[in-house]
Amino acid sequence: xxxxxSDLLRRWASLVVVLSMVPWVHAAGWFDNFDDGNAEDGNPxxxxxxxxxxxxxxxxxxxxxxxxxxxxxxxxNNLLASVDMLFEDSYVRTRAFVQAGSLPEEVGGNVGxxxxxxxxxxxxxxxxxxxxxxxxxxxxxxxxxxxxAGQSGIGVDAAxxxxxxxxxxxxxxxxxxxxxxEPKPIDALAITLDNTYASGRGGIxxxxxxxxxxxxxxxxxxxxxxxxxxxxxxxxxxxxxxxxDYVLWRGGGPLMNETVxxxxxxxEDYTEWRANFGATEAGGAxxxxxxxxxxxxxxxxxxxxxxxxxxxxx
Length: 314
What we know:
Elements: H1 5-19, E1 24-25, E2 29-32, E3 47-49, E4 58-60, E5 66-69, E6 78-87, E7 90-99, E8 109-118, E9 123-130, E10 134-141, E11 144-152, E12 162-169, E13 172-178, E14 190-193, E15 200-208, E16 214-223, H2 243-250, H3 267-276, E17 280-282, E18 285-287, E19 291-292, H4 297-307
Antiparallel strand pairs: 1-19, 2-16, 3-6, 4-5, 5-16, 6-15, 7-12, 7-16, 8-9, 8-15, 9-10, 10-11, 12-13, 13-14, 17-18
Helix pairs in contact: 1-4
């Protein structure tokens, strides 16, 4: 007996109704790589800056990177930009570098990130790295920085692209720096405790040491869950954990980005795919911003395909 096309359509209509009822878990967060050339139009985000008039300068994303500078304004200008989304637990990451000026002495500056930031009071936390391999983890109280941790000669600097991440969970602040072509360090460079500020925005900061320099930000991201740097379950390595990865696992592999039973195709790999279904890679910031709960839409799709008898079209 042949399988009627109308019956197939009814099955798919029923599946669509069921899928619409599936709950999804979303991590709060944002990501911007500035490729649209505009940091203020809401596509994908609206960045704000200089809200109280204390951090003037040029905030320009027209190049496809976000450049913060104050040319001709003397030394030691601070430029800060943030996104109006509040976090308690905060994970803020950027890829950035200090762009030198035209004169030999115009080389110095600090790029970094902001967390639990309040632009109306210039208060929160900042992690910055300069072009000379020196970093500082700061609490900023009404525009006045207080050094919580710092060190020179750390092996990375901001003269070329560097990854910077500040994690705040409860009252624990953790600082990370690494090169874009290297994995994120397992251990934080510094961990310190402070509970002065409980929540606030994520953002970026450029502190100018020498006039006519700029802080250039390739991307910035903030969320309330850890970034995922190995996209577990993305078995075809296309940047998304989706149904195609299930098909690859079902077919016996080979599987890329395994985190369990590496080198073998096992039920544990299926469990890893199911747990990470919906995760995507976003320009260097890997997020788990839409991961289904255990009763997943993916399971319904797979089950629906399993129930469809294949007897040919009529």
